[in-house]
Amino acid sequence: MAKIVTMGEIMLRLSSPGQKRFVQCESFDVVYGGGEANVAVSCANYGHSAYFVTKLPDHEIGQCALNALRKYGVNCEYVARGGNRLGIYYLESGASMRPSKVIYDRAGSSMAEAAPSDFDFDAIFEGADWFHWSGITPAISDKAAVLTRLACEAAKRHGVTVSCDLNFRKKLWTPEKAQQVMKPLMQYVDVCIGNEEDAKLCLGFEPEANVEKGETAAEGYYGIFKGMMETFGFKYVVSTLRESLSASHNGWKALSYDGKQFYQSKHYDILPIIDRVGGGDSFSGGLIHGLITYGGDQAKALEFAVAASALKHTIPGDFNLVSKEEVENLAGGDASGRVQR
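Now predict its structure.
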């Protein structure tokens, strides 16, 4: 069992029931989630000691978010309390050719306003094996960007492996601001995760592939993977390759590079998609588990991660509520969906 630390913002998610449009809604479905919180839940489900670092308001709604994490075994002892509000996001679930939509209401959240004094990073990373963060966290505020840097520095002082999911969000910042903040942070990163858009907008690398048209041949990524590794010194560069055929139907695979060999995973045809939010986070959680469990074997780790994220697309909510055994069964070829009796 590894000690895995993630840091970011958990939010209240208000989803339109079924596939209703916002203008049709008279009520919303309530769940909690957010990039790094979703990764922590995945790691806890796989049997690791998963810690989530954030700041939550000291009232009942903040407590609801905390309880959502504790329910699935995430350790919350490093969660600070205070500030004015919990961030909110609204989700309108798409179908067929109508895409899903997200509206953020998170400005001034407790995590966006958190200060370095809220966290003892040396205590947090004492005895830790892994630290995961995403590009969403430094994007939510300049203060959160400072926290991200301080956390990375502390992780390195304690010899902790660091992974980053680039996760560009155009509603939070511009490509120019993203590159200004993200590029200096890459010096701390061992495992870089991101799709083709993230690599372009966060780091300035662009693959030779037209993903919008479903052209996700792995060869288009070889050059940028090598360039990213040479520029930033990553130990692994990993990308999901999503074919968005419709809001309800995606192709899904991934590619990794360890500086010596490229490995392309098997391909999954996901139809119908129940909820794709958190799909990338479930991939990160699976990859972290795989690299820790399989001794850095990128092939086994990648197959576990892709299978985990394929399963997440079948589960409502942000969290990937699957066991290690369920993922291993799918990665091993059992995709029949037969009733388990």
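The longest helix spans residues 142-157.
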